[in-house]
Queue: 2 jobs
Job 1
Amino acid sequence: MSRGRVVVVGASLAGLRAAEGARKAGFEGRITLIGAEAHLPYDRPPLSKAYLDDVEPGAAPETPTFRTEEVLRDELGVELLLGAPATKLDTTGKAVLIGDQAVEYDAAVIATGATARQLPGAEGLAGVHTLRTLDDAVAVRAALDAGARTVVIGAGFIGSEVASGARKRGLDVTVIEASPTPLVRAVGEAMGAACASLHHRNGTDLRCGVGVTGLEGDGRVERVLLSDGSTLDADLVVVGVGAVPATDWLADSGLRLDNGIVCDATLFTGAEGVYAAGDVARWHNPLFDRSMRLEHWTSAAEQGAIAARNALDPASAKPYETVPYFWSDWYDSRIQFVGVPQADEVQVVDGDLERDGRCVALYREGDRLVGALTVNGQSVIMKYRGLIMKRASWADALAFAEKRRAPAVVSAR
Ligand code: FAD
């Protein structure tokens, strides 16, 4: 299809890449980008990193907008419908509804992402925030600028980055984690514990195996009550307990929803002309022969472009096959992970996080390398991604690690 109308729902990373991907594929028709937020598409990773800690207190941090309105409108030829949440998808009439307004499509890409999970009972209490949107980041940053005593609920990646930002400003911060070890689902138990040591080393009070039983305050949060009977004074509480795919508006669309929009390997939803991309999409990844829904920047960007191309030319649709990749910045360390963390064995093959501040760990399933984690291993992580992509054996991965191992530092007298 080179003419007609493509409608993209969700004006963020995957949605923008879908619009760009459609143009790159030679599409000359109308592209309409529908977004619930009033903002132009912006980048989320900086919101928990540079946006919180890189700027002088009080100075206005730069908004991480991807493209100006002029570029989107004049160069990319995109019609923007912002501040306009889609309320319904009519796959029979081939239209996205925004309230009473019907936006008809020939092809559609759904990229509505995920929304932050809230803490029940915290509604209406000032000083309690999630961190998913630019508006959330503005509020969290203002509280940090004011020197807030900070409590983070959940020692996942975003919560840990907020803790890093608070510590870089010299603020007291406590992270509460209900599981005995953080990041078990993301990187496995052993490496989750290793990453947690970064908190200890940087003066963050990390408390694992403790739940939050309540928040107290007169209109504004003042205290966090914990399941071990203790209490923490707080001016800022950041809730980092995960995200849920934004599919409520699709409830009666007929699309298959199961922790995301269920798609085949080409990101096709099963409804004519409708593809999904990014954090909202659960698709079959042929490389691992399993269904996945990722909340990673790289896959959201890649899926946006592929979903658009496939939507324009379903007859030659290509599968999206990938080795998942994400990074996270804690204090002065970069954590990077490729592949999947479900493994029969995890082996640290280079470095020691506590001793050297860096490490490489490999993940084995059967006789195959399926994952790799590095802390401050930027020069090597993509090599492991390549090995996983090539379906390298465990023996080959260990041999490669042996060759790449940084020589031990021997002190001479
Ligand atoms: P989203 O970015 O969630 O965008 C979806 C958009 O759709 C939103 O703007 C939403 O308002 C809109 N929308 C929702 N419902 C509707 C509707 N009904 N109608 C219209 N619009 C709708 N990943 C990494 O790999 N590394 C990192 O370091 C990293 N850091 C992160 C830090 C933060 C603070 C956050 C929040 C995420 C981070 N991520 C990181 C994850 C990464 O940003 C996401 O994977 C990526 O943003 C997903 O893009 P998306 O377009 O699929 O969804």
Note: The longest strand covers residues 345-352.
Job 2
Amino acid sequence: MAIREIRKTPDEVLYKKSREVTDFDERLHTLLDDMADTMYEANGVGLAAVQVGILKRVVVIDVGDGIMELINPVIIETKDSQTGTEGCLSFPGQWGIVTRPNYVKVKALDRFGNEQILEGRELLARAFCHEIEHLDGHAFVEKVERFVDPDAE
Ligand code: ZN
């Protein structure tokens, strides 16, 4: 377990597309463990592998209910909408209002390659959308309706 360096804008790796994971081996498990350590150390609720410079479709999320590991995640259903403040460990100090679905269903694999169906509402739905976007080289700033100062609101 180790803390990895979080890549920050304008690091160009953040804008690259990540590749599907095909090997569910020790190397993947180490990456997942390190990503969790890195996310917790940074007080984040989600982290995509690209944010530590690894172009693999791997995401970790913890919105307060324990660690979730998503390999090759795909959004298969969305419902309703929510509008709220969002930030990103790769865009320090930038916060903005983003509208997202309020319910998101995701199909993903676990660290052993088993398929899992995950459902999220509110913050978890937001985290699914935010992290999965990272895997295609996109970031929340593209969707911001207006930037805000969270300390002033
Ligand atoms: Zn992010």
Note: The beta strands are 46-48, 58-61, 68-79, 82-86, 95-100, 103-109, 115-121, 146-148.
